[in-house]
Design brief:
It is a single chain. By secondary structure, this protein is mainly alpha-helical. It has one domain. It contains five helices and no strands. Helix 1 runs antiparallel to helix 3. The longest helix is centred in the middle third of the chain and has 23 residues.
Length: 103
């Protein structure tokens, strides 16, 4: 396999992970630029998270199909969440490895 392909997927996985983490942290993402008028809607933040989650799952799925390792980019709990593919409050609360509480 061309060595550039695994590197390409590693960069794409890291980018998707960063985007998803930005949505967890309620930070600005590229998605905000696509739908600036939606940012005032409460459901927008959940929708934005689901879009980023699906992007991450899609890239991981493609990497798996090509037998490109993706595990190194994630901790154990993150791998578990990705393998189970369901985005719920637990994923958002525990993505960084410990239960997060509201300040």
């Amino acid at each position: 396999m061309n060595q550039e392909i695994p590197n390409f997927f590693t960069e794409k996985i890291q980018g998707a992970k960063d985007q998803f983490e930005r949505t967890i942290d309620c930070k600005h993402t590229e998605f905000d630029d696509l739908y600036p008028y939606m940012s005032e809607q409460p459901q927008f933040f959940w929708y934005k998270r689901y879009v980023a989650w699906q992007e991450l799952l899609t890239i991981v799925s493609l990497a798996e199909e090509l037998n490109i390792p993706w595990y190194d980019e994630f901790n154990e709990s993150q791998k578990y969440f990705i393998e189970n593919k369901v985005l719920d409050a637990k994923v958002l609360d525990e993505w960084y490895g410990k239960k997060r509480t509201e300040a």
